[in-house]
Design goal:
single chain; about 600 residues; alpha+beta; Serine Threonine Protein Phosphatase 5, Tetratricopeptide repeat; globular; disordered N terminus
Length: about 600
Amino acid sequence: MKKIVYSVLAVAALFITASCDQSRLDIPQKGVDAYESFYKTDADAEAALAAAYARFATRLTGQDGSSIYTDYKAALNNCGDDMYAAGSNYGDNDFMAQLDEFRLDSGNQVVDHLYSNLFQINYACNLVIDNFKDGLPDGGPTATTKRVVAEARVLRAYIYFLLTALWNTPPMIDHVISDGLPYNADKDPDNPMSHDDLFRWVASECEAAVPDLDERKSPTDKDGAVKVTKGFAWALQGKALLFVKDYAGSKAALKKVIDSGKYALVPGEKYWQNFHVEGDANEEKVFETNIEYNSGIGSWGGIIQRSTWMEANIWNWRSDHFVAGAAPQSKYTGGVDGWGGLGVPQWFGDEFFANDGHSPRFDATLKRIDDAVYNMDYGDETVSKMTPEQRAVSDKVGIADVKDGLYGQSFWLPFKQLLRSTDVASYGNNVRMNNGLIMRYAEVLLLYAEACLQSGDSAQGAWAVNQIRTRAGLSALANVDMNVLKKEKSYELWLEGSRWLDILRWGDLDRVKQAGQSVPKLFDKLHRAPQGSDVNVTWQFGSESNSRFYTTSTHEAIDSGAKVGYKDRNAFFPYPTTVMDKNPNLVQNPGWEEVD
């Protein structure tokens, strides 16, 4: 099956044919125009923007070859209270576990890579803006240069939303700099900007760009979902204003997205498609990066650098910890194995299921261990012929690892992120080809609901939340408050980069303060009976007599002497050591001055 190609970003979606550095159009190298002969025409403006989109996709939602980790998703999700950084055992996937358990330092790989990647994207956007903000050198502004600059401004604004949310007052670099070293935004001697000032700048950039942006033509316009449009600019403006508690401004911006009529929630039975290739650029997508099929590009040298290849490795379930040849996910994923680096806290799965039951939303997000082992369609023909009742008492299936079981897993397994075989159909192996999701309409509705509730408009807040609940197959609520909103948002947007930033600004930090103190291991009694040394043995259904699966607790990070759990300094990431060593003007965030 070929990946759908959308025309509007035909150049950008081809990305880079040989090296990601070819998106730096200001340096002489093979296949790249010299600076002095470029930035002259509308075609150059389109090409420069395509390079910025390419850098945005490969450095943010994909993998670029220099960074093998899914830094963007790790940074926005691993610190939240609704997931574990799991793996084969303690110490596996440690670059993410350091975030999850708040034992990171300024040398953490995720923090280092993401900070660098964000500023490289920013640089690509600044090249576009600086060279075309006044139009063409021989003709002034054109419709093309205006739109190109507007799109680059909103891409850059999104980068600064992330930088501000994660690093507090990062250097404000809104143009290409040729000399000198930048300061923290709040310490800039020429233009000091506070944390809130930076968020307001994001909002103002979006607002200023809107007149020159295209608008999505309709909910079925796929091109309008894979580039910056008025809808995404309004959505980002509203989100940034919400973070500075400008609820009236946030509400107004987000309402423009809603009132535009260009976006819609997909039906409940298609909820799952939002996270797989079948839902690329659908009516719910406000903005996502386009990963385009290109038969002329090889796997290792090309397509891997523009896809989320490593995400499959990190987050897919571990086949090798199940019975050999009988991993329950193998047929679903087309045989793509993983490292099991994502776990679900028991409390989250329990609360979500109590709220939703087997709603289309829940079933697309989590799967209970017994349901996975007994009811999934196995690739092994012998197992597939067994009934669920036969599997329930058979040692031919189940969790076979006797040392760590499924490390970091409760009775709920993560399913939303699991690759479907169709996601990798174009290239096979672990090359995930569905688009990189940045913003969908469900988030717009939930942001709008919060702005309404916080500004006293409970009726509109309830309307927006009930749009989400109704799509999930749940009954509408007459009364909706912030507690309801928080829960619905946690279920709807799980693993989409919202939870960590939300609990920070809401001050809901009780659970993350306990992070790392107890991590579960999930075992199967048909392959490993509980042992005397096991701590906190918990049976799935209350007792051994009616349960096959059980969990134990471990705290190996504490045993190794690590200081775990959220501390005040964790409100922001440290500036990476690699950056601090090169820039004496940069002041480290409070609490990170010395490594524990």
